[in-house]
Amino acid sequence: MSTQNKAVVLFIGDIVGKPGRRILAENLENWREEWNVDFVIVNGENAAGGFGLTVNAVKKFRRYGVDLITSGNHILDRKDEIPAVLQEDIVLRPENYVDIPGKGVWSGEIAGVSALVFNLEGLIFMEEEPKRVNPFKKALEIVENSSEVIKILDFHAETTAEKIAMGWLLNGRVSAVLGTHTHVQTADERILPGGTLYITDVGMTGPFDSVIGMDKEGIIRRFITGESERMKIAEDDIRMNAVLLEIDKDTGKGISIRRIEIGFDS
């Protein structure tokens, strides 16, 4: 699909439940053609009912045209699905997890060029389980032992500081550092001096009349009372958050990063 000497990658922010999946089902094929996309990555850890990922959802993503699914802490929410989901060749879980099945690194080709996509999870304000090793040390280990031209990281972390620090650590070492997890798209997309494309958080694909995808009334009650209740996915103001990356096929350096938000009828 690429024109000129560049690879075009579409990275779509955290898919939340059926509303998020429906956006891909109805639009992804057209976006691939319209934007000359070579490779599609989605963060799918909230794709099944807002929590976790199922084999059925993975199959649907394949049909929609998704090439790779990254994740984060919620990938482990559906205990009965974990073994089968993490065996899927297009699914990544954070590579810095300890004693968890599956993989956090994918290698192959994007637009005919050798490519590496890896997934890491932060430490700050994240649950202690599962056990994780330091993501910064793991990132350096992965990059220093790879020879691929294109390298893309999904860094699933809570704080802006941790994600920005990762961007600077890998500046000039990778093609892109893309933050996920908060479900709130940040307006700081840029090309770092070493040619690394960066954004603190890609955002969310799902219902925005909500609290990060969940029914807002229930979340508000939870904050007021301190009592937990079963959360349910909201339904209205459906939007897609994503970034469109252009990467030089010779150097692996970033050419451009475009932040995208598209709204849909609920």
Category by helix and strand content: alpha/beta
Distance between the termini: 31 Å
Shape: globular
Runs in which pLDDT lies below 50 for 5 or more consecutive residues are none
Annotated CATH topology: Purple Acid Phosphatase, chain A, domain 2
Mean pLDDT score, rounded?
Answer: 95
Q: Quick one: CATH superfamily?
A: Metallo-dependent phosphatases
By DSSP, the count of extended strands is 13
Looking at the overall shape, the CATH architecture is 4-Layer Sandwich
| Quaternary state of the chains | single chain
CATH class, named: Alpha Beta
Strand content: 25-35%
How large is the count of helical segments? 6
* Largest sheet report: 7 strands, mixed
The percent of residues in helical segments reads 10-25%
Could you tell me the radius of gyration in angstroms?
A: 17 Å
Question: Strand-and-helix sequence, N→C?
Answer: EEHEHEHEEHEHEEEEHEE
Number of separate domains: 1
